Amino acid sequence: MKLTKERIVDAGMAVFAAVGYQNLSMRQVADRLDTHAGSLYYHVRGKDELLALMADRVCRRAYDGGTEALAALPPTATWQDRIEAQATALRRSIKQHPGGAQLLAESPATLSTGALALMERLLRTLVDAGLPADHCGIAADTLLSHVTGFVLQEQNQFTVPPPVTAELHTSLREQFPLLMGSRVPRLSQEEKFTRSVRLLCAGFEAVS
Questions:
Q1: Residues in domain HTH tetR-type (predicted)?
Q2: What pTM does this model have?
């Protein structure tokens, strides 16, 4: 099968899912494609460019997911609804790629049209909502950082939680009564994410 940039990105994503950001190498990608590493450089200049292309793919798919989510909103949807739809689509897209949050957080700072499209649409939503222009850039960047960080924590959670004995739990409740007590509700990840985005939007609105 002909070697193409798309196939190299496919292989890169698969290798990344298996070995992570730091351990990914062009040789491993070449091995997955059953070719020599030198052949890859006709299409991709090196690991940094490959990682940037992989991050761009995640962003583009997130953008497409956001487009579908926005189209499904009713005409009466608020700007907060539109922000939530975009944030939820981005989270879903990142989670579809093992290590996707780490990829976005650590990928080289190169010009990515996929990432720029996500930021542009968030900015447009905030500007159209009437938020001060000097706050919109920070707000959009905060939203993207929040979603990436939220998924990074989700993807880095232990598969098996550490054991907590009754004695340890009692001790922890005495040291951290708010965190471990009943006053702070225990929420699902879905509910926690939704509430966190709504809290951010409430903060943005408060300075408008």
A1: 2-62
A2: 0.84
